[in-house]
């Protein structure tokens, strides 16, 4: 009777720079109070490491570090390693405009060459949106109403040659100076 013993050895495998960091809904226009979700994936080594997140806001010297976000794992037997995936959802504020989100395996976070960075986040300020809406309400809408009202009254020509020359009501009135 023969006994076949298969031994499998896995050694310590160092983590690597994450392969991807992307934002869901990258073509969306974000405004304050919207939620933005970022996803990070990459080799977290063996033993399995944890992906952590960092938010660097424009004009701030200190980054906000998120270490309590869950990392999900898939074991890659062929390489004796784990691939980790983590997602970060933040509720945006005006302070997040131009913020850069980054992720890395926890032991590599201080090595900037091993960190994956997002593009700056564009957040439309409700203040700016309010100004644009105010301009539309005060200038554009009354102008459109004025045009529609005068068009209906026939004060604005319809550019129809047959009626333009034959209809005396479409002739532009001439101003005359009244003698006193």
From TrEMBL:
SUPFAM superfamilies: Immunoglobulin. This is Ig-like domain-containing protein. Residues 1-18 form the signal peptide. InterPro entries: Ig-like_dom, Ig-like_dom_sf, Ig-like_fold. PROSITE patterns: IG_LIKE (PS50835). The keyword Ion transport does not apply. The keyword Nucleotidyltransferase does not apply. The chain crosses the membrane at residues 124-149. Residues 18-122 form the Ig-like domain. Keywords: Membrane, Signal, Transmembrane, Transmembrane helix. It comes from the Eukaryota. Residues 158-180 are annotated as: Disordered.
């Amino acid at each position: 009777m023969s006994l076949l013993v298969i031994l499998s050895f896995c050694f310590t495998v160092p983590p690597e720079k994450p392969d991807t960091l992307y934002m869901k809904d990258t073509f969306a226009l974000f405004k304050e109070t919207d939620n933005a979700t970022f996803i990070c994936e990459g080799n977290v080594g063996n033993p399995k490491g944890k992906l952590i997140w960092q938010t660097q806001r424009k004009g701030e010297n200190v980054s906000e570090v998120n270490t309590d976000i869950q990392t999900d794992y898939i074991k890659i037997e062929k390489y004796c390693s784990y691939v980790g995936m983590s997602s970060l959802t933040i509720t945006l504020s005006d302070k997040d405009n131009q913020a850069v989100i980054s992720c890395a395996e926890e032991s590599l976070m201080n090595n900037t060459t091993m960190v994956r960075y997002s593009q700056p986040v564009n957040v439309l300020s409700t203040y700016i949106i309010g100004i644009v809406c105010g301009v539309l309400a005060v200038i554009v809408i009354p102008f459109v109403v004025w045009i529609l009202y005068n068009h209906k009254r026939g004060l604005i020509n319809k550019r129809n040659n047959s009626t333009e020359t034959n209809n005396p009501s479409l002739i532009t009135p001439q101003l005359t100076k009244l003698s006193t």
